[in-house]
Amino acid sequence: MDRYLLPEQSAELYVLDVNTGDRRLVYRSSDLLFEAPNWSSDGRWLVVNADGLLFRLPASGGTELEQIDLGGVPPINNDHVLSPDAATVYVSAEDGHIYAVPMAGGHPRRVTNDHGPDFAHYLHGVSPDGTSLAYIGLRRRDDRPPVTNVYVIPVAGGADQQLTDDGFPDDGSEFGPDGRWIYFNSERAASVPGHAQLFRITTDGSTTEQLTGDERVNWFPHPSPDGTRIAYISFPPGTLGHPANVDVIVRMLDRDGVHDLVHLFGGQGTMNVPSWDPTGDSIAYVAYPLGGDTGDED
């Protein structure tokens, strides 16, 4: 579904140094609602989506967005991931499928299998060796909420591997840097609707661990390149899903506990996909302030 900026709203792309807390505004638009920044593997580029298209700009800022040719892929959503060598971008399209597109241009290739019109694939991660994609499979049901589960599929195409099989809403499945774990958010520990927390599951599906358990609603875990930290979006208590235009906190979980990195007005689109720079020192995120306010709140 297309999103648009509200009157007097802007989209602001920031880079945040998680060690010092310093934040830098990279790009701002009062016309285009862009979302979900990725980093290139050399740290030079940031990639975002907007209006069903994909764009890049230098991480240093100071330029306009440059459109990436997707070769005729249907309009995309905010689930896009770069391959470890940044030669390929994998995108989730509005037709429910995941496509592989050469970053240098060329013909796209559909990766996913056809599981019928009621099934959609939402991409969130690529394995460190570049051979597998982690995605959320969503099965729509006529008069009941859809079912979501964690899946893995080879980037070359082939059989899907389903890792979870239950009635709990799951989302945000992303590989850790060792390739052994997939991190995701789920309501499997909730006693009320919503109240997602962070989990991880081994890639063979044999072991699941809960990582957070607090009063807030936690989404989209992004493990750092060295695996010692997890950045994520924390919504207010009682939030259902991951809506846009709410006050959220970008948080980080490490061996010392949970740390607030920045408070901002955002949510959906702020940090849906892998957002760490290759050094593991910085993350990228998008704020959506209203009325001329800055997204750089604290």
Binned strand content:
over 45%
- What would you say the CATH architecture of the domain at 81-274 is? 6 Propeller
- The backbone outline, from C-alpha atoms, is globular
Helix proportion: under 10%
Kindly report the name of the CATH homologous superfamily of the domain at 81-274: TolB, C-terminal domain
Structural class assignment: mainly beta
> In whole angstroms, how far apart are the ends?
31 Å
CATH topology of the domain at 81-274: Neuraminidase
Q: How can the largest sheet be summarized?
A: 4 strands, antiparallel
InterPro entries: 6-blade_b-propeller_TolB-like (IPR011042), WD40 (IPR011659)
Organism: Planotetraspora kaengkrachanensis
Protein name: Biopolymer transporter Tol
Family: Belongs to the TolB family.
How would you sum up this structure in a few lines?
This protein is mainly β and 298 residues long. It has a domain at 81-274: TolB, C-terminal domain (Neuraminidase, 6 Propeller). The chain is built from no helices and 23 strands.
Note the main attributes of this structure.
Neuraminidase, mainly beta, 23 strands, 298 residues, four-stranded antiparallel β-sheet, Biopolymer transporter Tol, 6-blade_b-propeller_TolB-like, WD40
Detail the topology: elements first, then pairings.
Layout: E1 11-17, E2 23-29, E3 35-39, E4 45-50, E5 53-58, E6 66-68, E7 76-82, E8 88-93, E9 98-102, E10 109-110, E11 119-126, E12 132-139, E13 147-154, E14 161-162, E15 170-175, E16 181-186, E17 197-202, E18 208-210, E19 217-223, E20 230-235, E21 246-254, E22 257-266, E23 282-287
Antiparallel strand pairs: 1-2, 1-23, 3-4, 4-5, 5-6, 7-8, 8-9, 9-10, 11-12, 12-13, 13-14, 15-16, 16-17, 17-18, 19-20, 20-21, 21-22
